[in-house]
Every structure is written in structure tokens, then in C-alpha cells.
Amino acid sequence: MDLGISGKRALVCASSKGLGRGCAEALAAAGVDLVMNARGAEALEATAETVRETQGVMVTTVAADITSNEGRAEVLDAAGAIDILVTNAGGPPPGLWSDWERDDFIAALDANMLTPIALMKACLPGMMERGWGRVVNITSQSVKAPIPVLGLSNSARAGLTGYVAGTARQVAGSGVTINNLLPGIHDTDRAIALDTGVVNTQGITMDEARAQRAATIPAGRYGTSEEFGAACAFLCSQHAGFIVGQNLLLDGGAVNATL
Questions:
Q1: Are residues 5 and 84 in contact, defined by beta-carbon separation less than 8 angstroms?
Q2: CA 196: distance to chain centroid?
Q3: Which tens digits make up the pLDDT trace of 28-41?
Q4: Exposed site from 34, 115, 234, 257, fewest CB < 10 Å?
């Protein structure tokens, strides 16, 4: 399927690896020029060079912490006028409700709620003026079904979801859509970190931890960054202009819900 976005320009955050990389690669395959961001310069440049060689699109890289004011300013300055924004940032650490203090919540809100909001506020006016734009926020399945050990993530991402629900309806008339992708367990560094926690607390092997988690997923496996990226690219396509303010689960059926 021709997504109809060849020649567009996208900013993809935290895109040197994992789900962000999957989104960047899928957009590049559709002919989209990229501004790629991550904190680690070496991994970012390696990924960008691979994308350039395989897809032949223009790729600009900005190694910076997108969750800081300085890093965000640097990224936005390099990005310029973009048509597509994919927000993404690593999730806060797991723990128990009794572990978290105010500073922990502020850090989670800064990374997983306030940073995407700041990026949208910066990019939406230009998209609206040009009459076309796509925003995809990578959040979490915990928005639909809270995960007890991820209370910081549950809180911050739920706040972002509420913001998007209202904002998406306000900008849709200008040809701009905002939607959220809610990943379940995908085979990324985040999954490794969570599985390592299970290994340490339960005293089992990594293979046993992965098998235990995979057994909770009806699809019987972890997701891949490639299929996640394909879903992102479709939401960014010309065919998705009537999808507004939605939360799309990519979790292999793990969230057991009718709606």
C-alpha cells in the first residue's frame, strides 16, 4: 500500500533503537525524510546510517535528551518545519506504591507527559497552518490496563492520554490528527529490563522469565519493533485522516477487554 507520505518530514524521538527505531524505519520505507533523536550519539549515528543506506531518504540526527528543555530546544531547532511527529521516551522504573516520592512522580511526568505535550505545542501550529499533520505518541498498554509495578508510568501516560483526547478534537479540523500507540511487551531493551527484574526477584533464568511473560500474551510471543513501526506509519499516512484521538493497543491481545 502506498501510504502517500513520500517527501514528508518527520521527527521521531528516541529512535536509535527499539520501538522508536521501528517507527523511523517504517516511515523511511514510505519515503519520509527523518529527524532522528536519541541520547546516545554512537547508536543514533549507526542507526541513521543504516536508514540512509537502505531507504535513500535524508536523515538528520540530534543526540540530545528530549526530556530536558535544552535538549528539546536543540532538537526542535534542527527539525524545523515537520509534517509528522512521533513522541517517545523511556518509561520510568518499576517499583511499589510505597517506593515513590514526589520527585519520582515529577520525573515521570516530565519524561512521559510534559515532554510530549511540549513537542506538540511546538509543532502543531505549523502543521495547522499548512493544513496537514500527523502526531503519534508512544504510550503504553498500562493506559488501558494499569500495571501495578509501573505506577509511575500508569500515572504519567494516563495524563498524556487525557490531554490528547481533548487536543486531538481541537486540531482535527485543520487536517492534523493526534493518536496514541499503546505497546504491550515487545522485544526491546525495555522488555529486557523488566524481565531482568523478574529474574532477580524470582530467582529464575531469563529464558524462564520470557516464557512466563509470553504465556500471558494470547499471541504467545513478544511483539517486534517492525510490526509496531508499520502500525505507526499507517497512522501517519494519508489513509488515516479520519482516525482522531484514538488509543491503539499493540499487545498481542494481552489486555482482556471488549472495548
A1: yes
A2: 22
A3: 999 999 999 999 99
A4: 257
Residue 216 — very low, low, confident or very high, per pLDDT cuts 50/70/90? very high
Residue type, 124: L
Q: What's the grid cell of residue 37?
A: 533523536
**At how many degrees (to 10) do helices 18-29 and 225-235 cross?**
50
How many CB atoms sit inside 10 A of residue 229's CB? Answer: 25
pLDDT at position 75 over 90 = yes
Q: If phi over 0 gives left and psi between -120 and 50 gives alpha, with beta otherwise, what is residue 157? A: alpha
Identify the pLDDT of residue 252: 97
Measured CA to CA in angstroms, residue 72 lies from 164, 166, 191 at distances of: 20, 24, 26
pLDDT tens-digit profile of 133-192?
999 999 999 999 999 989 999 999 999 999 999 999 999 999 999 999 999 999 988 888
Separation between Cα atoms, residue 201 and residue 207, nearest integer Å: 15
Q: How far apart are alpha carbons 116 and 162 in whole angstroms?
A: 12
Q: What angle do CA 109, 146, 199 make, to 5 degrees?
A: 95
